[in-house]
Amino acid sequence: MRGPRRHFTHSKVLAWVAFDRMVRSVERFGREGPVARWRATRDEIFADILAHGYDAERNTFVQAYGSRELDAALLLIPQVRFLPWDDPRVAGTVDAVNRELCEGGFVKRYRPGVGSSDDGLPGDEGAFLACSFWLADALHGVGRRREAVELFERLAGLANDVGLLAEEFDPVARRQLGNVPQAFTHLALVNAARHLSGARSATPVLRQPRVRGDG
Question: Which residues contact 136 (CB under 8 A, 6 or more apart)?
């Protein structure tokens, strides 16, 4: 973002991921490291995100602390094992993204020029295909399989004559935009296809301690 510095929720979640994986490397694989300090930092970040990155009134995580804007990257919260798929805050976030970031059946990363989504760039852009596949994956994760399959099949059907997808899609002009091919789009497609075909999606191995205001 080219706007003011903010505490972006997805960035905080990835900081949690870093410490969580370091803790697991010690606990599960016998690696060496100051695991007590890492565990404390991980738990501190976890509590901070729930306290400041979640809008209880709307039952959704938000793009940045103190913001009411959304970011499609929030759909990845259960994928990285921050919360389980059956957590109501995950379902609420999926609903909110589906409701507020979808345009013409495709998902925008965020709404440019609004609140914490002011990226400093003029005009608008197309919907990100990776984000749209994230939504298909997330719909499946929260138990809405029929919707997930319908969205996935529609997205996969956009591939060109050699089976490649671009970075974005313009739902008005009905054409692909941006980098072609886009690796992130294909990665999101492959992950969604695996989960829809029965592969186990990411689920938490370690439950986080309950903190004040947590469920």
Answer: 148, 149, 151, 152, 155, 192, 196
In the structure, what pLDDT confidence band is assigned to residue 215 with cuts at 50, 70 and 90? very low
CA torsion 49-52-55-57 (nearest 10°) is 130
Helix-, strand-, coil-residue percentages of the chain, each rounded to 5:
45, 10, 45
**CB contact at 8 A, 23 and 208:** no
Residue 157 lies in a domain: yes
CA distance 208 to 17: 12
* Lowest pLDDT segment from 2-11, 77-86, 158-167, 172-181: 172-181
pLDDT, tens digit, for every residue of 151-181?
999 999 888 888 888 888 777 767 887 778 8
Question: For position 39, which CATH number holds?
Answer: 1.50.10.10
